[in-house]
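== Folding the chain ==

***
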Amino acid sequence: MFIPGQDAVKITDRAAAQIAKLMATDGHKALKIGVKKGGCAGMEYTMEYVDELGPHDEAVEKDGAKVVIAPMAQMFLFGTEIDYETSLLESGFKFNNPNVSEACGCGESIKFDDTLFAKP
């Protein structure tokens, strides 16, 4: 759950270093993350470069890295830790999201807890 005064997402040192490196290399201002329908579990994360922030975008900065959360994805991503992992076979961003109730076997798609959709 989002708490006023705290960042919507947390960025690890490794993720911040990788994001800053990508932004410096390609000359973009931020990395925008969101979610969309798709994949075997129902939803997928999206990532894209952005050069301008929208009026309702939520931005988080750490050590020269800026992450923007798409407005429609904010409720799904609050509390998420963004990490960057490197292994022998692959490297990439990893989302440790407390709002996810299931993930597919390949790790590419997710399903969110149904309480996010409950009406008050």
Remarks:
- The CA atoms of residues 47 and 94 lie 12 Å apart.
- The longest strand covers residues 30-37.
- The first helix runs from residue 13 to 26.
